[in-house]
Design a protein that fits this description.
Elements: H1 12-16, H2 20-53, H3 63-108, H4 113-119, H5 121-163, H6 165-185, H7 189-213, H8 215-220, H9 224-248, H10 250-260, H11 263-276, H12 282-329, E1 348-355, E2 365-372, E3 377-381, H13 388-395, E4 403-408, E5 411-412, H14 418-424, E6 425-428, H15 439-444, H16 452-461, H17 465-469, H18 488-502, E7 506-510, H19 518-531, E8 536-540, E9 552-557, E10 560-565, H20 567-573, H21 576-589
Helix pairs in contact: 2-3, 2-5, 2-12, 3-5, 3-12, 5-6, 5-7, 5-12, 6-10, 6-11, 6-12, 7-9, 7-12, 11-12, 16-18, 18-19
Length: 597
């Protein structure tokens, strides 16, 4: 895998590695191909010149046939050299895109989970996948074309002034005007415009992914229009930006197009003036022949200007794509300890922990301190936004604390190697994700290399046999294929089987019954008994009935612990927990009454 040097020195060629030389060779061949591609125009003009000067004895002249074959040969040679150039640049581009994705994904695996979550999967996919695709297209096609586009003007200027400098000036004037308008379109503001364009696309992509993922919940609560609001807003923001930017380019783009396509309109009057100022005869014939050459050749100038315009735009896209990929690669990874320590036991302790999310002025949690003895269960409850999930994320080291310390087995989590920390903690989140793979491999994700027998024991312990048995292929059933999907509650139960298989001494349960129906919730509650037996458990729950038997309950509000104690102790305090419990009991006993006339 390519090792990247200092950030300031990283370019696309860094990712190309040793294949960068193929890019250079491809660009040289593209320049040669461009020069060879100009020869057919000269041969065509020589053929026309021979036809006119030898008239009416054209058939007796062998020059026409010779020049014709030379034009065909030059065209084929130009295409062949360009084909070789593209082979070289494509090989280099494929290696560059591969290395870019490999380095990005390798680095991504070392980044804090919180940072990944803050970006969103849709944005990350677009940055890495589409970014590598854009740079691949640039290196494979646009870069050699760009070299050709800048080689062409040198040859064009020579040819324009070689035959008749006056026609050359007339041809050059519209191109200069067009170049001025092109500079205005591709000026200093273009980089910022490209950045805004990519931002709009990434936001729209992110919202699309979140919307698709949330469709089951949306349908459950009949919130289709409301849930579409964020996605629709992202589409509208992209539309507004695109329309505004397009309108700003309307005048320079029209002026540019008129300028470069108006060369012919200048050549005809110039030819008439030059011919009218000369005596009839051979001189007028020379003017006519020169005019024919410029009429044949000036389309090359138009093509050259268009290539410069499009390759300039694609260069901006490639630069912006590289910058965004480097934004991920240059993000600081979780610092691994030089001398990693091993937890002495499965106890957990928060010591005066304060933490703020990036770009947030108010701390998510502040001065939080509590202890979970080995084998005990502590439950976090409280209003939404109180900091419960943040506490779980910090314990898992999805983020690092701003102040204070989190100890696992008496050791600071920052002094424990990531692999060792993950071996000691199992997670069951409220939105458990299953890969598009077999049920067997989905469960084995918790313990790679586990045997089928171990998985089956975990399934039995987690009471998931009914889920497995309802499919003809059992554990080999492919999730997400041929209409085979699991409900939210079933996904949670499979996630619990994962946790049982992992058999970590510390378990974090974050709203594990959030998407479960009553039947699955009952099964999950029974699974908990097996899962948490002898384990250290940090449980987050809104359904207060699930945490009544916890060794300690912590009520969090506004990022701090307001109340702490057992279920009975908190009820006796008649504080916020008692109010929440009474509200929960009321909602649990509420039934739809009969209507009477």
């Amino acid at each position: 895998m390519t090792k990247l040097p200092d950030e300031k020195k990283v370019t696309l060629m860094t990712f190309a590695g040793s294949y960068r030389y193929l890019t250079g060779l491809g660009c040289i061949l593209s320049g040669i191909s461009t020069l060879v591609g100009l020869l057919p125009y000269i041969y065509m003009w020589l053929a026309v010149k021979g036809a006119i000067t030898k008239w009416p004895d054209v058939r007796e002249s062998g020059d026409l046939v010779r020049y014709g074959w030379l034009a065909v040969g030059a065209s084929l040679l130009g295409m062949f050299v360009y084909f070789l150039a593209l082979i070289c640049t494509h090989l280099s581009a494929f290696r560059t895109a591969r290395n870019m994705k490999t380095v990005s994904m390798h680095h991504l695996s070392k980044l804090p989970v919180g940072y990944i979550k803050s970006l969103g999967s849709g944005k990350i996919r677009r940055i890495i996948d589409d970014g590598a695709g854009q740079t691949e297209a640039f290196l494979a096609h646009q870069l050699p074309d760009l070299v050709g586009a800048f080689v062409t003007p040198v040859a064009v200027l020579f040819l324009l002034f070689f035959f008749d400098w006056r026609f050359g000036l007339v041809s050059l004037l519209p191109m200069v005007v067009g170049l001025c308008f092109l500079t205005r379109m591709m000026g200093p503001n273009s980089a910022e415009a490209m950045k805004q364009y990519q931002n709009a696309l990434e936001d729209m992509n992110n919202e699309a992914v979140e919307y698709v993922r949330g469709i089951p919940v949306v349908k459950t609560f009949q919130q289709s229009i409301f849930s579409f609001k964020n996605f629709h807003g992202a589409i509208l923001r992209y539309r507004d930006w695109a329309v505004k930017y397009t309108i700003s380019l309307r005048i320079p783009m029209c002026a540019y197009t008129m300028s470069i396509n108006g060369i012919f309109a200048f050549l005809i009057p110039a030819g008439l003036l030059l011919a009218g100022g000369k005596a009839a005869g051979a001189t007028n014939l020379n003017v006519l022949l020169d005019l024919i050459f410029y009429i044949l050749f000036t389309p090359v100038c138009v093509s050259m200007m268009d290539k410069i315009m499009w390759t300039s735009e694609n260069t901006l896209k490639a630069k912006e794509a590289l910058n965004r990929v480097m934004g991920i690669i240059n993000h600081e990874t979780l610092k691994e300890p030089i001398n990693p320590k091993v937890p002495g036991n499965a106890s957990v302790e928060f010591k005066d922990v304060t933490f703020s999310y990036e770009k947030e002025n108010v701390p998510a949690i502040k001065g939080v301190s509590f202890q979970i003895k080995e084998g005990n269960t502590v439950a976090l409850v409280g209003p939404s936004g109180g900091g419960k999930s943040t506490v779980a994320s910090l314990l898992s080291r999805f983020y690092d604390v701003d102040k204070g310390a989190i100890l696992v087995g008496g050791e600071d989590v920052r002094e424990i190697g990531t692999e060792e920390l993950m071996k000691n903690i199992s997670f069951v989140f409220q939105d458990s994700h299953l890969f598009k793979d077999t049920l067997l491999r989905n469960i084995q994700a918790a313990k790679p290399g586990a045997s089928t027998q171990e998985v089956e024991r975990a399934i039995k312990a987690a009471r998931c046999e009914d889920i497995i048995n309802k499919f003809p292929q059992g554990l080999n059933t492919q999730v997400g294929s041929k209409g085979i999907y699991l409900s939210g509650g079933e996904c949670q139960r499979i996630a619990l089987a994962r946790a049982v298989l992992k058999d970590a001494p510390i378990i974090v349960l974050d709203e594990a019954t959030a998407f479960a129906d009553p039947d699955n919730e009952y099964q999950i509650q029974k699974d908990f008994e097996t899962l948490v037996k002898g384990k250290t458990v940090l449980m987050i729950a809104h359904r207060l009935s699930t945490i009544c038997r916890a060794d300690q309950i912590l009520l969090m509000n506004h990022g701090a612990i307001e109340e702490a104690g057992t279920h009975e102790e908190l009820l006796n305090k008649k504080g916020l927990y008692a109010t929440m419990w009474n509200d929960y009991q009321t909602s649990a006993s509420w039934k739809v009454g009969e209507s009477y006339e």
